[in-house]
Amino acid sequence: MAKKDPVVRMVFADSKGNIYDHPDLLMLTRRGQEWMTPRFSDLMELPPESELMLLPKRQAVGLNPTTGDVETESGQTAVAAFIAPGNTVWAHPAYKTEEGAPLLPFFAYAALGFANDHFYVAAKTVDTDCRQQFAHIAKASIAREANALRRTYANNRLLMHIMNNCVARYDCPAARNFALGRFEAPLPTSTTCNARCLGCISQQDKDSPFPITPQCRLTFIPRVDEIVQVMEIHSKRAHNPIYSFGQGCEGDPLTNWELITDSIAHFRAKKGPGTININTNGSISKAIVPLATAGLTSIRVSINSAQPALYTTYYRPKGYRFDDVVETIRLARANNLFVSLNLLFFPGITDTEEELEALATLVGCGVSMIQWRNLNIDPEWYNTTMRQSHSFQTFGMGLMLFMKRLLDRCPWLRYGYFNPYLGEKTIPQAPMPRL
Questions:
Q1: What is the C-alpha separation between 15 and 174, in angstroms, rounded?
Q2: Would you call 13 helix, strand, or coil by DSSP?
Q3: pTM for this structure?
Q4: Fold of the CATH domain 139-416
Q5: Where are the domains of the chain?
Q6: Hey, which end of the chain has fewer CB within 10 Å, N or C?
């Protein structure tokens, strides 16, 4: 006899913030416009280093298994999970929004349930790399290493920015890893951006409905010697070092591509080892050949959608178009750069049939990897905003099926969450695009 799946209960919080599982109602999830009860096999236990979040003025809802009705009770606040890196959310929590509810801050909100004395979330592990796991590392150890770098390199403004802001204020995982001398080091260089992303975490327009950003933007442009010194520090301390231009505390790095090109060339001229990566919106294609010639290894291009209209609605580009992003990807692959997509996944919008067709076409332009990242934004607001401007012909098929079908179309693809170590150079898996 087949083993019966456990019953997954709705989770809610009372007026004092205490979290409970409901004795009768079942967990409900939301994928775009659809509400559904999840299959237990599609859920995963809440990963370590995740956090639970109360959703203010949003009533928890659950399914009555006897009547089949969706029910809510006054005073039961919805709860979501902000899951640890390496995991991708495939469904948001279902809830009833009250009048006057504030917009939710820039996090990813995973649907949460409870069964067998454990919390379960609507998410999938896409990368087992441990680089952003810190539970086993004492905060005092990180602070000690950061203070030592401050004392030794007090005249390097870039290093001081990383230690004083990214480590001490933001708890940035990449910055903490740099302080510890491991994995991937951040290299912010740009004070400006040529996009106005709806979910930008470092700067919003004055009329933005999101009044607070999690980070403040870089206020100076570092010199070549400051950048190279940070890279050299990391190269001497980290095993298999990765250096990444393009961070959450800055604009887009391609707006400073000449500075980055010079910095890479100086570092490589000194036999600097490791993988040099740039995280970017991919807007300035003329930068690709100089960067590749200087010694860049990989490029990660961020998109919320491979459909130009959806992309433009979210990124709101200034002075470039989606076609420029495609050209950047083509040129990067033609110059033997390893190309990743930083795909900002949103259930019910990113996993439609139309998106599958568009994404498969874009991947065919030279993409070797997809990093399945979560779009950190109020899910109800984003869903409404995108649907006000665009008609969706199909419902979301779900993350797991979407990933499988995309891999069937593009079998060379590598899936993950983090920028991979590739050495100084690599042979990209993606076929060469037609230029």
A1: 36
A2: strand
A3: 0.95
A4: TIM Barrel (3.20.20)
A5: 9-125, 139-416
A6: N
